[in-house]
User: What shape does this take?
Amino acid sequence: MDMMNKTKRLLRRFAKDSDGTVALEAVIVVPFLFWAFLASYVYFDAYRQTSVNIKANYTVGDLLSRETAAVNDAYIDSMQSLFAFLTKANSNASLRVTVAMWDEEDNMYKLDWSEARGSKSALNEAGINALADNLPSVIDNERVIVVETWSHYTPLFEVGLNESDIYELSFTSPRFAPQLAWAN
Assistant: This one.
């Protein structure tokens, strides 16, 4: 019985003692705070990269919409290089430029041309019409320039965000010419 009383006294004294509670709380809380800081950084970086990709996509689309001369392979290559430069994508930047005309009579887009760089392939007429729900309503015989971009994002730390491709789609109408022509 003496051992039991001694144990109870030690436990009561331990429960009343407040020495070292800050250190114990720090040991419990600091890893969580560190993880929360890393997670905030990674999620902010992912949103920042998405924003950069959107702006780079719009830049490429805007350059194409202002073009009055026919474009060629070298021009599309330079657009992919520009996109990769603006997004700081090392080697995984892909770009697809498609020009299509809306045909009111057939109620579908007619493909003028499509070119792709990187790991993607050019669209065909079925492909552009599969995107029709994402494209604007335009008048008969109006052309639209569709720019699609992809770049790979890898988080810096493992905090629950997976590697993924950031996909952006934008569309614009030619500004200074009736259409963006292909040189070949």
